Amino acid sequence: MTIDTTPRAYATVTGAGATFIAPDGHSEPITASPDEDIRRVIVQRAAAEARRTGTALELITSGDRGDHHLLVDSTGELTAVPVMPVTRRRRDDSAPVQASDAGEPPAEVTPGPEDEPHRASFITADSPDHRRSTGWRGTSSRLGIQIPESARRRQRQVNEVNVSRHWAGYRAIAVANGKGGVGKTMTTAMLASVFARLGGGNVLAWDNNDTRGTLGWRTEQGTYDTTVRDLLPVTGDLLAREATVSDISRFVHHQSADRYDVLRSNPELLATHQRIESAEFGELMRVATRYYRLVVFDSGNDESADRWLRMIDASHQLVIPTLPSPESAESAALLLEALRDRDEHSARLADNAVLVVTQPEAGARRAPKTIATGFDGQVRAVETVPFDPALKSGPLRFDSSAPAPAMPGSASPAPSAPDWIEVPP
């Protein structure tokens, strides 16, 4: 048996950017300038890694530009790595089936002779989908009375497992709508809470706002008053090899119960005093993706700002909050149209966007279903959220939100972890 010791690197391409994972597991974002091809930038980074290690390395890329498996030497010369077929057998079928890594992984690979004996392992993995029942079902189960879980409960368990999974490289969610007061900050905080509580921290909610962003007002503040303006001058220090995970704590505000961190803007300053240019955003993004596995952007309302456009370029998923009103819905529709006309990456975000329609007041006459129906075929999913006074104003805490009855025109209340909360791999 030959053991392959060739170092391997990975790159996931999204628009003009990519996440590069070196052979030692270090993940970093890389970005192409307007006159560069991101593919060439990735190859140059891989060649630099080959020079550092003194040997050629395998480069496996995926994402916007397709899937590729290459061998890169220190000069940047590329050699395609052939896909080797694998022979597999199914227990109910004696004929071998050819498979490659271009399709689904083989269900069972037979490495030895056909008559090689097999035995069942004593070690079995416990599926996270099968969680202990709680409440009256749990009590009945402990008494020996098995009561099947409801369909809604089973779906919620599946959703929670999906949210709790980790992935290679960072992911980013943009929460955006050009109209103010439609629930962007609330949606940002609740998304960050769900991913951090179920997936185990390392989640950043970033108030990417020039114009009096309120995420910092509605979340916990540390014993200091730092904002994104304080972080900018020290990005180089935080990206140094000797920097430690705790160094970022001086510039973000940890949410003790919900387990995510907040990077605040300064709502007391005019927009002209806290503009962030494209290069500055790039440095901030490098810091964010070094210390966090997931970034959730509260976008603000200025869609022409450099930081807003760079947020779109860096994001993997778009979430558009809206109220069940014509003005809010029209703003959401215009955003989708503009993104589809902008570039390929932005169009993909629009096609896979999730629309969140929030009921603004208890007993409001406008039915969210009317707005939701208008977006059929325009986005990947539409979710309706019942009115909740805990989310309307004051501190945003996940535990403060309470289950609500079904909304008018909605079959059931939204679960805590709906199935659309799933960042693309």
UniProtKB/TrEMBL annotation:
AAA domain boundaries: 171-338
Q: What is this protein called?
A: AAA domain-containing protein
InterPro entries, alphabetized:
AAA_dom, P-loop_NTPase, ParA/MinD_ATPase
Biased composition, class Low complexity, residue ranges: 400-418
Pfam families attached here? AAA_31 (PF13614)
SUPFAM superfamilies assigned: P-loop containing nucleoside triphosphate hydrolases (SSF52540)
Region named Disordered: 85-158, 393-425
**So where does this one cross the membrane?**
none
